[in-house]
Amino acid sequence: EKFSPSASLGLPPPSLNTSASIPRSPRLLPFSATPYQSPQHSGGHEPRPIPGTADSASHPPPPAAMDKAALVAEPVSAAAAGSFSSLRAYGRALAQTPRRVARRACAATAPGEEMSRVRARSGPRMARALRWHDLVGLGLGGMVGAGIFVTTGHATRLYAGPGVVVSYAIAGLCALLSAFCYTEFAVEMPVAGGAFSYLRVTFGEFAAFLTGANLIMEYVFSNAAVARSFTAYLGTAVGVDSPSKWRIAVPGLPQGFNEVDLVAVGVILLISVCICYSTKESSSVNMVLTAVHVAFILFIIVMGFVHGDARNLTRPADPARNPGGFFPHGAAGVFNGAAMVYLSYIGYDAVSTMAEEVERPERDIPAGVSGSVVLVTVLYCLMAVSMSMLLPYDAIDADAPFSGAFTGKAGMKWVSNVIGAGASLGILTSLMVAMLGQARYLCVIGRSGVMPPWLAKVHPRTATPVNASAFLGAVTAALALLADLDVLLNLVSIGTLFVFYMVANAVVFRRYTGNSGERRRKTLAFIVAFSLVAVCFTLLWHLVPSGHGGHGGVKAGLLAGCGALAVAVVAAFQKLVPQARAPELWGVPAMPWVPAASVFLNVFLLGSLDRASYVRFGVFSGATVLVYVLYSVHASYDADEGGGGGGGAKVVDEGCEV
Fold this sequence. Notes:
Oligomer: single chain
CATH architecture of the domain at 128-513 and 609-640: Up-down Bundle
Radius of gyration: 26 Å
Number of strands: 6
Number of helices: 23
CATH superfamily of the domain at 128-513 and 609-640: Amino acid/polyamine transporter I
CATH class of the domain at 128-513 and 609-640: Mainly Alpha
Mean pLDDT: 78
CATH topology of the domain at 128-513 and 609-640: Amino acid/polyamine transporter I
Distance between the termini: 7 Å
Structural class: mainly alpha
Order of helices and strands: HEHEHHEHHHHHHEEHHHHHHHHHHHHHE
């Protein structure tokens, strides 16, 4: 159903005048249906090249380009003056909420619009100054944080034993599969929005806003927690055991909010100033810090090989109570360990948000994202072997595996101080990359119209999203000042895993649907069916008891059945539904098996998180839906459908059904 403000007010129908100079703002398309690229009807314009083709590189679409030829100009009425121009206007907008939600929630933009008209809302362009080695450095800095020192200990002691090295290899392979999905989108659509933009062009506005808002909230909370942990690790590096000695106690405040951490605030503000000043300079600083951090990690690895004992790889400290061997808890322990250590790879997704600032996306993004994942996997595996050689797996301190191992050796306590210094550098690099990524997420969310456009502005001199960076820096610093958040909050990132799951599904959807409604239904049916099979496998893995008796055989049989069913579903989909489109520059190999494996893995990992993570995700999601209904849907309606354009004529795309 097409909505016409002039008809609703009893005004005469507008006249068609394609030569008039009018602002062009085409209506969004449902579920990434790519519009037909036709010549412009205003005199003298050449046909607009399809985004992603060879012609589009030399003839980029103008910011005001349209996707359809049939345009109807309508005068903007008083009712279309903007949903937030007055209380009365906002009341009218709220009354229209159900219709606007139905109209906008599944409306998707085309990639060409994201790279032209939507991007133009930020004003000046971000500087394309990054190359593949910058992206590798950002990926290393984002992934290799202080959490690796704790994650390795927990996975080794509780689940995998010395086989944790295999857990890291499996997790690294799975991270590479997810990175492939991000890379295809980032090369095709090099904009700063990362997963938000990818989901917006595929599943529509609401799905993108729900996942993007959850991701930003988790970024802010985890960054505040990591900044406070910097105080603790820095204290370890200089010999101060208790971080409370560096914090100011405030009597009268509730427990958990009564210690002011000025060091954490200073770190956040310093990083905020750096990323506001220049992306290239921030990348250079990150490169230096990451190089020093990697040098610390290599030092720890060498010390483990030099002072370790290879017999610890198969021999427990207490053979009477703990099983021996390289895989003391079998395959189940290795996969449970992989589920835990996989969260140490989170951070490469932030690299995709830098796509708008990369010199040659088709070359630099695949090398930068995939290269950083491969290098991190090698480092993690070497660290796991080094730690397993230092001590038997059942004698490792789960909370401080490396420093605890060296503390127990005569004359080696100084190594613990070195580990503290390395962890402090890891915190700085992971904070910088995370804050770079969160600012670009928020910038593009502002561009889309669902958040205030002030957040989307790019500074003309620095070519960075200064407003988004400063706003999120201030919020993060305020949280880090008082709130004693869990140091490991960033390791329980349900929002990030949910985004990985959505992006993998989005790759399948865009490759197989095209403009066909029948293809769309079949692809959605595959996504739902495969996700349900993955959920069943996850529930069986976690709920059916294991053992050496009948229970173990039943569980193995059920898991094998689910695995075979998952393979059959993917094979049937591949045979029955051919691909509708092929990527022009870079694509995920072995479709649809690679994204399907990523979906399966992320569902499995989501099932391994604790109840508190789901409670937090539910609270965040509820708050996001409330913001969308009360503000975002009306703001985006004004931005894209003529509500608050500030006067002039409105353009309605007659050929688009929403």
